[in-house]
Amino acid sequence: MRHVDNDMTVDNDMTAGGDMTAGIDGADDDPCLLPWAPDDGDDKFHEECGVFGIFGAADAAAHTALGLHALQHRGQEASGIVACDGGRFNMHRALGHVGANFSTPDVIQRLRGAAAIGHNRYSTSGETMLRNVQPLFADLAFGGIALAHNGNLTNALALRQGLVDRGAIFQSTMDTEVVVHLIATSQRKTLVERLIDGLTKVEGAYAFVALTDDALIGARDPHGVRPLCIGRLWGTSGEATILASETCALDIIGAEYVRDVEPGEVVVITEAGIASIKPFQPVQNRFCIFEYIYFARPDSWVDRKSVYEVRKAIGAELARESGVDADVIVPVPDSGVPAALGYAEQADIQFGLGIIRNHYVGRTFIEPTDQIRHLGVKLKHNANAAILAGKRVVLVDDSIVRGTTSMKIVEMVREAGAAEVHMRIASPPTTHSCFYGVDTPERSKLLAARHSVEDMRRLIRADSLSFVSLDGLYRAMGRTERNPERPAYCDACFTGDYPVRLTDFDATDRTGPVRSISRLAADRG
Ligand code: SF4
User: Measured in angstroms, how far is the CA atom of residue 62 from the centroid of ligand 1?
Assistant: First the structure.
């Protein structure tokens, strides 16, 4: 029997509340705006997870903590690391940021081993319970396995019900646990064969990292919707191999980017090297295009494309498609900065930091009284009147989700004295929800799902509003235009063209909440 040291702690309460649209003119008369006022002024899609794994490093857990720190933007609510020293698995999982969870030497020292995997999780507060924090560990008859996952399995509930009917007992409401049970019940011989057997039964978008007592395993779904890259590090103990959601997690430990795990590929990393297995029928690649627009860090490279350069190219496309006479191009920080730079260069108009972001406002900030609740977005952003007063301003942001932040930013820029405010968005209108591992509002709460561009312009009170076209977005990716027969990316949140079946959601007649898998599982036991 293998042994796992399981050290789980709860560090803080992540709940926050507050109606941030209170006092905003225009919100009151639009029945579509008020009901979904965000509670933290952060009106964005959110990537739900980041994963990291390393094999062959003497201090694997410390490297993993650093990698997770670089991936903190992909999930801020919980993190965990499992390390393996050959026979023993050591685990620490906790709610809160990586820096808070893995900064003390005693925690890292307890995570002994030359191989480790780690996970950052983003989730709504109701689902942020410690038993849902990854990696998961299972001590099976044929070997221990730890598993961490970025993405969402769209048939997890159907599979789970089948497993429960056959006697399986689930510890969490995570779709990842379904894979653990599929491994446990597989009739195949080796752990790797059992994992692959399990993956052939799941649908959805996933990038898995798994750890056994002699291997680090990585896997991407056949369409390659979620990212996973391979890196290499030379250290005093020799060469280590790394798996990570983004290349910025390689940079932080001085590792070299080797390549991406290919769509549908399973890589098995052992003392013997990297073995590549392609167990699935090849299908069209459909990588998440929103990674380039917003999720990934701008210093990351995905599929050998610089995220920063792609964002600048989208800004240039915006300027070509919907340029307007203006005096200054202003990004909505931080995510609008590269696109605004690209717009400014293309339009040959001055770039200026007309909005300053306060980086010290976290999700846990709770406004103490009703009197100051109306401060709203100014807690996070403030207008820089020196740049804005008397100017015709083009504001550049990456996306509009509910529209609440855009509305407040436009109002703030006007109050700072701008003569005109033109909004330019570096993505097409977000009309559909994501089912592939991204925290997203229900479709009815997406501004673009219910309003024309002109209606949205009126609601956010801009002088003009334009989004980059879908073909313009593809051009910025170095393509010609979108081929509707074989789109090169997943762009479902702009088109509704979902590359992977939505089995569980369809079973609810598409009436359930978007992130319904774990919630339905919890409801139905
Ligand atoms: S629906 Fe949008 S956010 Fe979700 S995977 Fe597809 S492109 Fe990415």
Answer: 32
